[in-house]
């Protein structure tokens, strides 16, 4: 079973990869931006523990997901992004759009998993 933080990290990686390859257009691009904004709000919230380090990791992940993926997951867990309904809703929407009829496809394990 995938944790909430892993779901968010996967969605951020999917959106970043689409942006780096130039395939992020329309809905996927917009949903990736919305997810990044939701995560950024969580990181900078008074009760969040991400702070400026978390925001730097989020920004760095967008440019090199392979290098920053592990640190991003740690930041997402620490700030509680995996339990934030707004963040999870945005992550699910991005993954659905990316794997939908106009999407580019995702990892087979994500296609088999059920996204509530």
List the helices and strands and how they pair.
Blueprint: H1 4-20, H2 26-44, H3 51-63, H4 65-79, H5 85-99, H6 108-112
What is the N-to-C succession of helices and strands? HHHHHH
Shape field: globular
Number of strands: 0
Q: What Rg is obtained from the alpha carbons, in whole angstroms?
A: 13 Å
Q: Tell me about the largest β-sheet.
A: none
Overall pLDDT score: 83
Low-confidence stretches are 103-116
In whole angstroms, how far apart are the ends?
12 Å
- What is the strand content? under 5%
The share of residues in helices is over 70%
The structure class reads mainly alpha
Structural overview:
It contains six helices and no strands. The protein has helices at 4-20, 26-44, 51-63, 65-79, 85-99, 108-112. Helix 2 (26-44) packs antiparallel against helix 3 (51-63). The chain is globular. It starts with a helix and ends with a helix.
């Amino acid at each position: 079973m995938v944790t909430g933080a892993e779901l968010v990290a996967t969605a951020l990686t999917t959106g970043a990869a689409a942006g780096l390859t130039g395939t992020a257009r329309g809905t996927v691009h917009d949903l990736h931006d919305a997810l990044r904004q939701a995560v950024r709000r969580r990181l900078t919230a008074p009760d969040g523990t991400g702070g400026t380090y978390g925001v730097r990791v989020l920004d760095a992940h967008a440019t090199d997901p392979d290098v920053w993926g592990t640190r991003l997951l740690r930041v997402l867990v620490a700030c509680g992004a995996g339990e934030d309904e707004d963040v999870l809703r945005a992550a699910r929407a991005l993954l659905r759009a990316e794997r939908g009829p106009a999407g580019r496809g995702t990892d087979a394990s994500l296609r088999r998993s059920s996204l509530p």
